[in-house]
Amino acid sequence: MSHLYTASSSSLKSLEDWQLNALDKFQTKMTDKEKPFPCIPATIGFAKNQLRYGFADDPGDPATIQLTASILKEFTKHSRNYGSYTSLIIFYKHKDHLRVEEYEQLFWDQLTGLSEIDEVEWPNGIPKDPHDPLWEFCFHGEKYFMYCATPAHKNRQSRHFDTMMLAITPRWVLQEFMKKETLASRIKNQVRKRLLNYDTISIHPDLNSYGDEDNFEWKQYFLRDDDTAISKCPFHRLLGTFKNK
After folding, report:
1. How far is the C-alpha of 61 from the C-alpha of 244, rounded, in Å?
2. pLDDT digits (tens, 9 = 90+) for 173-209
3. Dihedral (CA of 159, 162, 164, 169) sign
4. Burial state string for 191-225 with b = 16 or more CB within 10 A and e = fewer than 16
5. Rounded CA gap, 99 and 23, in Å?
């Protein structure tokens, strides 16, 4: 049984109400013409029907990590067949009245759990220290950029969604995008302009480009609703524990 759905999948009729509602809200966000979503590649992926969707349970339940892992593993195996703008969108069953910091902990708990049960070794060439500019999250041998949105984000609407949501993009997708240097540069500038119009707060200082000496990917995975950021990646200890194979 597949854990993945497309926006036009015939199996959508089997979804629960909260799942259908999450997908509907996401589609609305991706197609809003008056207030266009800042991440232009995401809107392209949506328009091309290259995004894949998965649904997980309560992010506070440790058992949910197994389901998240199954969804991400299936996506990893087949993602190169979905198109050059593909990403995996995972919606979590809603938790009421949590603060941004509590969602932040749930997010890192998910990554922690995924790393613990990962069946494949960390890819060669990816540092185990998150404070290395070349570090990024990996699962099942694939390198990923992680994005988390939550109901608690109010000022940073670009990180707001009605349920906790992950958008997971393979590094190869981003590399393909960056090959067209002129187009990529123009779109990146447009993204930043859209962010200024979309959020009621300035662009977060941690937003940067992968590989830059002053860039740390983990800082961009979960942006708080203000300009503050944690100084040390919660993943640091885990890599020393689980990835020394």
Report:
1. 27
2. 999 988 888 888 899 899 999 999 999 999 888 777 6
3. negative
4. beebbeebbebebbebebebeeeeebbbbbbbbbb
5. 23
Classify residue 202 by its DSSP letter: P
Residue 88 CB contacts under 8 Å (≥ 6 apart), including other chains: 4, 51, 52, 53, 54, 71, 72, 75, 79, 166, 167, 168, 169
- The pLDDT tens digits of the residues spanning 69-120 come to 999 999 999 999 999 999 999 999 977 789 999 999 999 999 989 999 999 9
State how far the Cα of 214 lies from the Cα of 133, in Å rounded to an integer: 7
Quote the crossing angle between the two packed helices 100-117 and 64-78, to the nearest 10°: 70
Answer whether 155's CB lies under 8 Å from 225's CB: yes
- Would you say the pTM of this structure is higher than 0.85? yes
State the Cα–Cα distance between residues 63 and 141, nearest whole angstrom: 22
For the beta carbon of residue 240, count every other beta carbon within 10 angstroms: 11
